[in-house]
Design brief:
Beta-Lactamase; 3 domains; alpha+beta; five-stranded antiparallel beta sheet; 10 strands; Arc Repressor Mutant, subunit A; single chain
């Protein structure tokens, strides 16, 4: 069944909202879908079947308490769900209803219906699965009580038209959340990563020290200009940004923006002080901090720190003794523990 002009325009309006930045919350996506397809409730579900790790968002929000109360029954009998069985056995089915799959006609005789969907007052479902790894089911489900009747072919067509946009929103939301978490950790414990266009405008930044869309300070602009003629090589500097002094590594890229690595000098000094309190010498602290930042080999650390490879090895042996560890990975982990505390 094709979409009417009215439905097509409505789908496009919702699709436009799904591209907003920052991405819509899943509860807002559910509300938008419910504006197009009449239903009692709707849910976004992310289910790892092997571990029964089921995460979900519901609209209206008042249904969450009921779902939480009944969820142990769902966990116990979810394998009886004919739509999940169909979706996991045959990928790419699109939007499906009970009447579209084997076992759907007998759904009301299952323990899943008696102990979960019946008490939840759900008789009909319209489900669309999004792309996901094996043994994981990600998708949207719309629910209706008996009195509302089965979802129509028009409802299926609308859901199918939305499915690609819902999948893109899901991927976008995951990427934004992962990026946010990584940026937060980078900002707290490591180096900020900043890409700068040739006109001096920040293209992207993992830290709030330099905002995307803003121009870099003059202290950085002059350094970038000086290193632009040597793509592929790194140069190290100390610069003032505002009232703080920063360590700066400039990596000029052959094609694309210049990449900057920035870290407050006081952060490096603070880490060094913590490590010296733990029994390391200043040079041992330098080696461990460089190892934590780069993960480099002894030879790479030697080149970066301007010492011989044998000296790096000797300093690392001292680090292991002082921190009572036996490996490079354990030493880095101990550094994180010391600096975080």
């Amino acid at each position: 069944m094709g979409l009417s002009d009215t439905d097509a325009q409505a789908v496009l309006r919702v699709a436009g909202r799904l591209t907003e930045h920052p991405p819509l919350e899943f509860a807002d996506v559910l509300d938008a879908v419910r504006e197009l397809i009449d239903c009692d409730s709707a849910s976004f579900n992310d289910m790892v079947l092997a571990t029964r790790d089921f995460r979900y968002v519901m609209s209206p929000a008042g249904e969450i308490a009921k779902a939480t109360r009944l969820k142990p029954q769902y966990d116990k009998y979810f394998h009886e769900h004919p739509l999940i069985t169909a979706a996991t056995s045959t990928r790419g089915l699109g939007a499906i209803r009970f009447c579209d799959v084997d076992g759907g006609a007998d759904f009301t005789s299952t323990d899943l219906f008696r102990h979960f969907y019946g008490p939840f007052n759900v008789r009909f479902q319209l489900v669309v699965e999004l792309p996901s790894p094996p043994d994981v089911v990600v998708g949207y489900a719309l629910n209706r009580r008996e009195a509302m009747g089965e979802f129509s072919d028009r409802d299926v067509a609308v859901m199918n038209a939305l499915s690609g946009h819902l999948a893109m929103h899901h991927r976008f939301a995951l990427d934004v959340e992962r990026s946010r978490l990584v940026d937060a950790e980078m900002d707290r414990y490591a180096w900020a990563v900043v890409s700068v266009r040739s006109d001096g405008v920040v293209e992207a930044s993992s830290s709030t020290v330099l905002d995307a869309g803003a121009r870099v300070p003059d202290s950085l602009a002059s350094i970038i200009a000086d290193t632009a003629h040597a793509p592929g090589s790194d140069s190290r500097h100390e610069v003032m940004i505002g009232t703080q002094r920063w360590h700066c590594i400039v990596h000029a890229v052959r094609m694309g923006p210049t990449v900057l690595l920035l870290r407050r000098q006081q952060d490096v000094a603070a880490d060094t002080d913590v490590l010296m309190d733990a029994g390391l010498t200043p040079r041992q602290a330098d080696v461990l901090i460089a190892l934590a930042r780069t993960g480099g080999s002894n030879n790479e650390l030697a080149q970066e720190l301007g010492m011989s490879e044998s000296t790096v090895k000797k300093h690392l042996e001292g680090v292991f003794r002082a921190l009572q560890v036996t490996s490079r990975a354990a030493a880095v982990l101990r550094l994180r523990e010391l600096t975080e505390s």
